[in-house]
Amino acid sequence: MSCVRRASYAVACLAVACSTPDPAVFPDRLHGASDDSLICMAVRDRFIGIPQLDDGTTSTQGKVLHGSWWVRGCAAKRVANGVRLRFEGPGWYFLDQRDRDFELRQQVRFTLGVELEGAPELTVNKGVAALRFETKTTPEVELQVSRDLNIHPTSAWGSLVEMVPVISVRDRVAQRLSALAANAIRSKLLEGATATYELASGQHDVVLGKLAAGQTPQAAFPEGIPWLVNERVFLPTNATQVFGPIAPGSTRLDARIEQGEGLLFRTVCRAEMSADYETIARGHLEPLPARTSAAQGTIRGAGEHSATLQVDGCPYFVVVSTLGESTTVAALRIRE
């Protein structure tokens, strides 16, 4: 694959990575279908990590993932301004919010549709090819948050409001979260996206926002070892993160536990994800059915660890969750 095509692949992922959770009213226009464009072939069925939306980091700084978005539908079309892209799919984002009357600490599920129009620009500097995607119009963001919210009153007034049958606290909170998330995603998408490809190593990456010429995003593991996944994750109790799909065969899972007891990991074949999705999206890993095709294990204790993932016969996803009742923050790298 040429450098330009590889960069196009990475930019596609980058454009999608920008879209954190965000469907509005009808986010499922494509009904899970994708066209045969290079971008859609690269992105379809891929889980895109959602970084913390309000952490104040720049495009070059490492971001901690708080959620995942499963891109199930994709369409790409040439237009006068460049290209129009649409991505759709379900996902989740972990929220920990509290006010004087209610609190919500949960992995919140959503459905998201994103449509954006812009023009890619390719530059090469200091051995790094960068494909920048700048939006030419305001992105359409359609986000619908699940009403299945575990909202708990924290005051007498909150308890009273929850008891009134005419007032649906969950519906109102879901509507408010949908609007806030849509606005946050739209703002992020307006910053554009950059896909980078290092000519010497073949390593590619994507990030929201612009990078300086010759610059690459900061990776969780900065060493120059080629990788498939290189992210930091935030895993409270009842939260999960998914990576992939990854081609069949043997890979290494490297983990650096920065906080917490450790993590559980489990692989899921691509064909089985539809059946397992609801359980994973609700933040549970252990109830998944036992399968001979799955590789699974535990990484325990602070510091760096490494495990082998051997999955033959199917492309697969890697699912991780925290170990025990503590919140885990970890750097993860998957490499061949």
How is this fold's topology laid out?
Layout: H1 3-18, H2 38-43, E1 47-51, E2 64-70, E3 73-79, E4 82-98, E5 102-125, E6 128-135, E7 140-145, E8 151-153, H3 156-163, H4 169-190, E9 193-198, E10 204-208, E11 229-235, E12 240-246, E13 249-259, E14 262-269, H5 273-281, E15 296-300, E16 303-311, E17 316-322, E18 328-335
Parallel strand pairs: 2-11
Antiparallel strand pairs: 1-2, 2-4, 3-4, 4-5, 5-6, 5-7, 5-8, 6-9, 9-10, 11-18, 12-17, 13-16, 13-18, 14-15, 14-17
Characterization of the model:
The protein is α+β, with helices and mostly antiparallel strands and 336 residues long. The protein has two domains: 3-208, no CATH class; 229-335, Jelly Rolls (Sandwich), CATH 2.60.120.680. Helix content is 18%, strand content 45%. The protein has helices at 3-18, 38-43, 156-163, 169-190, 273-281; strands spanning 47-51, 64-70, 73-79, 82-98, 102-125, 128-135, 140-145, 151-153, 193-198, 204-208, 229-235, 240-246, 249-259, 262-269, 296-300, 303-311, 316-322, 328-335. The longest helix is centred in the middle third of the chain and has 22 residues, at 169-190. Mean pLDDT is 81; it is low at 1-26.
